[in-house]
Amino acid sequence: MSTLRINFPNDRPHFLDITNQAPPDNAPWAPVIFTKEQIEEQIEKLASLPRPADGRRAALFVHPSAAHFAPALAPGVQVMLTVLKPGEATAPFRHNATEVNFCIRGSGHSMTAGRRIDFQRYDVWNTPSYATHWRVNDGNDLQVCLTYSNAALLRYMQVYLCDENAAAGEPEHAPAKEAHDPRRESPFGTFTIGADGAMLMPYERLINPPAVESKPLHWPWQQVQAELKKLESLGAEYVGRRLYLLYNPVTGRTNGTTPNFFATITIRPPGIIDRPHRHVSAAINYYFHGRGRSSVAGNIYPWKAGDLMLSAPGWAVHNHASEDEVVYELTIQDQPLNIVMESLLWQENMKEPSILLGTHTGFVTNRAQVP
């Protein structure tokens, strides 16, 4: 199909009268778990395939509630499993989605926007939108990665765009800044009207917003783990969660790893039970050490190392508990997106009211009082 001409169906729009009608209830997706055994079976299945033309052996984790045109594990979160054999590389690729990448087996390196990132097991790195990238397995084992992206949300919006023939070459740079040309600028600029701060912005600025460079960043597990171990000693009276956000400064106040997602890595000492809480953002956990259970909307779900779980559908009350050994987990949430949309309601304590995080002052823990 041509990208310049589309033959649209001749369907007629209509009105929907909602007078005196309450909004329909939300239908949260049920928690689901892909077990370690299921994931390992899929890894072996992918590894048995002949090398595809683009080098990408991949499978999506699909929730039973996902739309057929937007396969995903949570409504706005696509999770992909990729397998690369030793000595293989993928073809250069780019799309208008952002990614969080997590290596769960093997090692290798990624070339992203001209930067080489050498990664090991449990390392995390991001891929900015429309950055040309490819992956190389220069180790001796299978390279297995989880990639979380907002491609599912873009598919819902019908604006997911990819370039499967991206050229590998020099680092990508923004176009060179042209010489000042007053004919290209509004003589009035952006200015205030009224007394409450409302402004008017001309078209010339609308189509040329300030550019902020989005870089590929790397969070090596060895260094992250060393910092997490310092949190292990916080006593049972600590009411927060023992984790670090893998923070990307380009996301600013939205506290993200990408503009859509945050990635946190948590350490749970044995026998720790979180307080029940809830938030609008959906949460997906990959447990890579230990075992425990999650309570979600009154249902109990046991899990173990190697399991991947949609652990918190949006606004479902939930908490997690570790059993007899330390737990490590990677959590992906679409919190930054919800902060930008001013939709991130968060209830940290079920006895206290919810707060609109990012707009209202948030919560505090008792960290200062814990030795």
Describe, in plain words, how this protein is organized in 3D.
The protein has about 375 residues and is mainly beta. It folds into 2 domains: about 130 residues, Jelly Rolls; about 140 residues, Jelly Rolls (Sandwich). The protein contains 5 helices and 25 strands. It has a 6-stranded antiparallel β-sheet. A 6-stranded antiparallel β-sheet has the order 2-3-10-5-8-14. The longest helix is centred in the N-terminal third of the chain and has 12 residues. The protein is globular, with a radius of gyration of 23 Å. The chain starts with about 30 loop residues before the first strand and ends in a 15-residue tail after the last strand. The mean pLDDT is about 95.
Domain count: the total is 2
Low-confidence stretches: none
What's the rounded overall pLDDT mean?
93
Strand content is 25-35%
What are the key terms here?
371 residues, mainly beta, Jelly Rolls, 2 domains, six-stranded antiparallel sheet, 5 helices, 29% strand
Task: Provide a compact summary of the structure.
The chain has 371 residues and is mainly β. It has helices spanning 36-47, 151-156, 203-206, 221-229, 335-340, and strands at residues 32-34, 57-60, 78-84, 94-95, 99-105, 108-112, 115-119, 124-127, 133-136, 143-149, 162-163, 191-192, 199-200, 218-219, 243-245, 262-268, 278-279, 283-289, 291-296, 299-304, 308-312, 318-322, 327-333, 345-347, 355-356.
Compile the SSE list and pairings:
Blueprint: E1 32-34, H1 36-47, E2 57-60, E3 78-84, E4 94-95, E5 99-105, E6 108-112, E7 115-119, E8 124-127, E9 133-136, E10 143-149, H2 151-156, E11 162-163, E12 191-192, E13 199-200, H3 203-206, E14 218-219, H4 221-229, E15 243-245, E16 262-268, E17 278-279, E18 283-289, E19 291-296, E20 299-304, E21 308-312, E22 318-322, E23 327-333, H5 335-340, E24 345-347, E25 355-356
Antiparallel strand pairs: 1-21, 2-3, 3-10, 4-11, 5-8, 5-10, 6-7, 6-9, 8-14, 12-13, 15-16, 16-23, 17-24, 18-21, 18-23, 19-20, 19-22, 24-25
